[in-house]
Amino acid sequence: MARQAVGPILRGDDLRLGSVLGLSVSRTTAQIAVACAILPMVAVTLILALTGDHLQRPVAAGLYWSYLVAAPMAIGLVWWIRRPASRFGLLLIAFGVLVWVTSWQASGTPILFDVGVLVEAPIWLFTIYLFLAFPMGSVEPRAARWLLTVMGIGGLALFCAWAFFSPVIAGGGPLTRCAPNCPDNVLQIGSDPTVARVAGDAETYVALALAAAVFFVYLARLLSASRPQRRALISVAVTSLMFLPAYFVFNFAAWILKVDDLGTLDALAWGIVATRILLPLGFLVALLRAELFASRVLGTLLGNLAARPTPGGWRDTIADVLDDDRFELGFHDPATGRFRDAAGDEVAPPPRGGQRAWVPVGRDGPPVAAMVVDETLMEDPELVRAAAAATLLAVEHEALEGELQASRVRIVEAGNEERRRIERDLHDSAQQRLVALRIRLGQVAEQLDGSRDRAMIEQLGGEVDQVIGELRGFAQGVYPHVLGQSGLGPALEAVALRSAMRVTVRDDGLGRYSEALETSVYFCCTECLQNAAKHAGPDAAVTIRLAERGGDVTFAVADDGVGFDPATVNGGAGLTNLADRVAAMGGTLTIDSAPGRGTHVAGVIPGAGSCAPSPAAIIPPWSSSVPGTPL
Fold first, then answer.
1. Calpha distance 445→456 (Å, rounded)
2. Model pTM?
3. pLDDT in tens, 541-570
4. Which of 19, 198, 232, 367 is least surrounded by CB atoms within 10 angstroms?
5. Which residues form the Histidine kinase domain (predicted)?
6. What is the DSSP string of 2-41?
7. What is the pLDDT of residues 574-606, one digit of tens each?
8. How far apart are CA 173 and CA 164, in angstroms?
9. DSSP letter string over 171-190?
10. How many angstroms separate the CA atoms of 568 and 612, rounded?
């Protein structure tokens, strides 16, 4: 069934055992109890094996069973701690407990010995179940589930019939042989040799058929799996596809072909022992590989964030690192409450029962994005967390950058507004009063008869005219009136006409833009002109170029003066002002100069003056997941 959230992966505080024990214990308490039980169980296993007098190889049997008790339980405990929502931790612990019961075959007490033998059949079926259920926790498809159920029930029934009608029973492994005799079968309810023989032979055929069927089902599953599924399966597949043939060959040779060469049978039997020892390690390797892969994925994603990918590019990056070609990434659209991809198409939760899973991405508030991933990836919570965390970080980073950018633009606009106020006050107050004073001085001069007094008044009038001119120039420098009226090109041409240098303005059809953008470009260009006037030399000529490229406004100021070496010149106030003005609009500034070949200053301001992040931002242009939105 398709998952609808990562909640089950990320949460799970209690292990509820009320249905079994009538109580609830915390998960941590249960895990501590399991950890404390491993050593006593291993000790009991070793004591039974070393003190029994009927096993052919007691030391090897004790070590073998001790390993198959401790390893699955320890690995299951690691699974349980690392992935509390996965049932595989508890399944592996249960497997270890069953092996511990099987080790009772080492006991000389008949009832314990018989119970140990009887548990061999459930362990065999449980092993098959672990193969088929990994990593989802349930056997899929339905045909495999029916295969395991029908053949498992049939095999158990035949095994029990054999056990209950045989005077002596023993395990089928090389380490469970008795020498000279096994304890009596106290579970025997009848003494019909025919029933025991027929049931035993039939159970062997069922077990062999099940082993062969599971081998080919698992092999077909591995070959037809998606890349994420194959990556999850491969570690367990290697060990299971080694164990099943070894099991089949030994039992086929021993019970079907009736091979009587003990050397051959021992070699085949030890093959089963060796491959069964590897079985728990497959689950441990699967967990370690998943966590290492998730770490690499997170590192790759965080590294790619530095390149400021587009929303579509970010989707492709995650799909690539997850090995999921059908991966979908949607960003929250507050206008509709839905999720849409980079192209604006809706990304909806997949239908239940499919092979896709829905993963919301958020922090404490509503999700800001959502992912649709391969269902198998939900069994790798570290991997899903890595992709979700990187996506959340990307959205938050762009939101904060957008807030910073908007704040910078607001500062620029506030500065421009203050410039306009100063220019307006100078024009409406001081400049008008000086003009009125100049008129009054002219009137006074006309009324004076003495030439000396008239000359003095006219001289004062000339000085007032000079002050008015200087004040007008200062007001234009604070905020050029022509910039607001006519735009960048005419405003810079007016500056060029007043400049003492040879200045050429080349306007490639630049239109009108936001006031903040036009003001920033204007003062960057005038700052460059001032720097050229100071440092380029008296004969230098300056060229200003204005253009729009792909929605970005570009400007360049180049002179043919003496130039300088940027490596040996610290950035002064002029260069700092240039960089700050361009950065405030989210743009970039480059300075190219060398002694003897002039200076070239170029800037690019993105988005035609928009205060939004650049088009490379991870947040799509239609999304309003901006600062202040709960994440």
1. 9
2. 0.66
3. 999 999 988 888 999 999 998 888 877 776
4. 19
5. 529-609
6. ----SHHHH---EEE-HHHHSSEEEHHHHHHHHHHHHHHH
7. 677 788 778 878 888 888 888 888 899 999 987
8. 20
9. -SSGGG-BSS-PPP-TT---
10. 36
